[in-house]
Amino acid sequence: MRLLTTTALASAIAVPVLAADPELTVFDWAGFEEPSIFQSYVDKHGDSPTYAFYGDDDEAFQKIASGFKADVVHPCSQMVGKYRDAGLIEPWDTSKIPNFDKIAPEFLASETIRDDEGVWFIPTDWGATAIAYNTETVPAEDVSTLQVFVDPKYQGRTSLPDSSDDVWALAYLATGTTDWTDVTDEQFAAAADWLRQAHQNVAAYWADPSEQAQLMASGAVDIAWSWNDGVVYLQADNYPVGFQRAPKEGSSTFFCGYINMKDGPGSEDKAYDFINAWLEPSAGKALLDTIGYGHTSTEAMATIADEPAVKDGLSEVDAPILAQTPNDPAQREKQLAEFEKIKAGF
């Protein structure tokens, strides 16, 4: 069974739960410690880095800002500006990253990621967020729309991520907004109202993909707003799961990568060895098999283009897409505060 790859303990405390190479500490989402993804690092140094785990991006930032020391951290793109504004990171030297030019240009398009001062973020992985559902209990027509999350028929049968970014992507899409880089007050209010309705149907907010998969596998919920990996875990356990990426209002995509912490305690050379291992073409297959995500390297994606998991979960769809790219930090903080109120019943 693959559903227990992430534990509540690992996501709740920022301590090295996988102590290995003491000269490189990676602060990451649980599951990404799979050595096959960065195999050349292991081949060169004889061991994996030391890993510490977190459950969501905001938790990770708070722990780093409070003094937890790591060499590299794995946020998603919308968090990069927050780390940079806080003075916690430094640019990567791309002359030390031979495969940097193989990263698809769209992942580097934001000035938050690359500007005149340098490259602040190395994008490595990306995925889709869409409707995971029990194909035996939920008719396909019900998940043809995101309004399934506010349908009284499914009261107490849905699960949403305990992630402000993902729930707001859902709420914006459900209310007709497909670009969150320029949200009006009216669009924000409409999305907040919808999210309050969706909250009434929620049995539980999931903290990580394994928890979401467990909620569905146990029969506690039938529908979830899900990343790729939760679906991969369910498929591995032969759970009857569908992944609807083309409801009429659309679905979202996200991408994540690594930042270089200022004054990290370990070896800077090993930080570059780690990133270079991640950007090798062979990492594409390992990432897909382990997590279910796509790779930002065009060469890595070319090696897995014919994989069923790519065609089913990462291919283009005929529906609107909200790209979870870097957005206004003030707007993101506003969304985070409102989400906390909604979860509390206000």
Automatic annotation (TrEMBL):
One cellular component (GO) term of this entry: periplasmic space
Pfam families per record: SBP_bac_8 (PF13416)
Alphabetized UniProt keyword annotations: Periplasm, Signal, Transport
Signal peptide extent: 1-19
Keyword Signal: yes
Gene Ontology biological process terms in this record: polyamine transport
Molecular-function annotations in GO: polyamine binding
Primary residence: periplasm
Location(s), subcellular: Periplasm
Record bears the keyword Transport: yes
Name the record gives this protein: Extracellular solute-binding protein
Taxonomic source organism: Paracoccus subflavus
